[in-house]
Design brief:
Blueprint lengths: L14 H11 L1 H18 L4 H22 L20 H17 L4 H28 L1 H7 L22 H6 L3 H17 L3 H12 L1
Helix pairs in contact: 2-4, 2-5, 2-8, 3-4, 3-8, 3-9, 4-5, 5-6
């Protein structure tokens, strides 16, 4: 499996481990399976009112976090340390994590959790490791100073630091990482789950969630 330069820095191993490692580092596989996973949760989910509304809110927060992060990043050119990057190193992946967890809850299926956790285990440790290594090579000591106090995914604070010289850009958010397509894809499958709720349960679920 072709992985560009993502595993060239790693020591050789036996063929089976090499295949698994290459798969875990393969960017397109991670993205394609993540997209498919959203559809699987939507298609096979059996939502209940409370789980649907709670999960949908978490998933939508994940999408918002993604858009927030995408509106700051300038890939491989500037080390972004403002906005969401002042509280986590990989806010796009934090957003993805919230998105998937939200859909796990909304789907209301026993299999949803092991499938989602397997996805995270397969791809996120290797992806984060590669991204950190790449940024370290690009930005050196600047990255070391920044990363020393910033966790990878789970923030210690929810109050980001903003730099007036590098403010969030809605247009940049739309252009980065095909965010409009992500929003549309997630919105469609949340709507699909919503259509599975009995009509009388929709408002009941909302009221129970707000209580």
């Amino acid at each position: 499996m072709a992985v560009s330069n993502r595993t060239k820095h790693l020591p050789p191993t036996n063929s089976l481990n090499q295949m698994l490692r290459n798969f875990r580092y393969h960017e397109f596989s991670r993205q394609a399976i993540g997209i498919l996973l959203v559809a699987v949760y939507g298609w096979f989910g059996q939502p209940e009112p409370v789980t649907f509304w709670v999960g949908s809110v978490i998933a939508i927060i994940g999408v918002i976090v993604r858009m927030y992060a995408a509106g700051y990043v300038v890939k491989n050119k500037v080390l972004c340390s403002d906005g969401p990057y002042s509280i986590v190193r990989h806010p796009l992946y934090t957003g993805n994590t919230l998105l998937i967890i939200g859909l796990m809850i909304a789907a209301n299926a026993v299999w949803a959790w092991p499938v989602g956790l397997l996805f995270f285990w397969l791809f996120y440790p290797t992806t984060i490791s590669y991204e950190d290594l790449k940024l370290h090579r690009l930005f050196g000591e600047e990255w070391e100073r920044w990363s020393a106090n910033i966790p990878a995914l789970v923030p210690r604070s929810v109050f980001p630091k903003n730099n007036p010289n590098n403010s969030w850009s809605f247009m940049k958010s739309l252009k980065q990482n095909i965010e409009p397509a992500v929003v549309a894809w997630v919105a469609f499958w949340i709507y699909w789950l919503w259509t599975k709720l009995p009509a009388t349960d929709v408002l009941d679920g909302m009221s129970k969630t707000l209580q």
